[in-house]
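Researcher: Next entry in the queue.
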Amino acid sequence: MLNLEGVKVSDKHQHKGIGIILKIESIAKESICNICGTKSDRLHQNHQQIIKDLDWGEQAVFLETNRRQFKCEKCNKPFSEELEFVKERRKYTKRLAAKTIEEVLADDIRSVAKKGRVTEKEIERMLKDASKDLSKVKPIGLKRLGIDEIALIKGQGKYCAVLMDLDRSKLLMIIEGRTKEEIKKVLREWGSEVLEGIEEVSIDLWAGYKSLATEMIPNAQVVADRFHVMAQINQELDGERKKEKRKIQAEIKQAKTPEEKLKKETILAGITDSKYAILKNKENLNDKQKDKLIQVQDVSDRLKIMHQLKEEFREIFEKTEKWTDGLLGLGKWLSTAQKYFVNSQSTIYRWFDEILAYFDNRTSSGVVEGINNKLKLIKRSGYGFTNFENFRNRCLLNWHFNH
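Model: Structure for this entry, 403 residues:
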């Protein structure tokens, strides 16, 4: 009737407005002491409990059970029997918790709680229990680790660190905060066997992650993620675009003749609304953006050269296969770009070894960016998740159930 191993139904009652109450009892006459591991059939006390179970159609189901307390015949300590279908100190079955979690992952806490089967607090406890069980599981066969972060609350400077298995595109952990100590705590829990097996760590351009990887995962090659390097170059290119636009706007105001003003306005028209035309990958431009790029190149030699250098830098990583070719390509680019990308050049020199390490196995956290996008989607749809712990639980469980 119940499909619960180790129990039998001894009675059944149906109460209008409440549901079905099934009285159940354990088939076993003995239990194992959780202190010394000795079997005992010496009954000490009875504790009656009402446990929520899965509905039968439209009817709520409650299990009236006796969680017996035995006294160990060896150590003489009292202990409660373990009921396989319900966690200790919980008032709902494991299968009800699993079903509820699946519903929450497809919806939100408040909507599921409104169905009346379980409360919001019970749902939060279910999520916490399941997430805690997942958190105890250490990574298996982890070779390439990605470390990144996402904004917990956009615009407020609150970030959480994200750890991922790059080979399996798997979320490993979300950490409230991104300090070295917070991440260290998780890595220590993984243990030396896991850490010693990691061969590469892909990180963004934060020195804290670099020193963390060097200290905690000494056998691994640290790789600077190419997308973060590219983001630095795009940021500097966009900064130059804004600078030129402001300069032309100021010159228009100071123009002394209509001809001079018209000439400056033509330059401004070419630069205005050109952000995506110069920052997007060239092959991804639509026809309108292609036309705008031509306009920019016609009115600004500096932006034309910087855009060309940006594309050349990207091609080094897109098309270069060998480490030696990567070294030569980066060296040539740095020599040419020194007049145009001063800040990016400085960053690349500081991170040269880690950037060059990309060409060993072409390790990139492009996988990390994809997972981060999924995490942001979960965050946006997480109505009812009022704190970080609930958000983390939902993310970990979402990967467990759906990936």
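Model: The radius of gyration is 31 Å.
Researcher: Noted, moving on.
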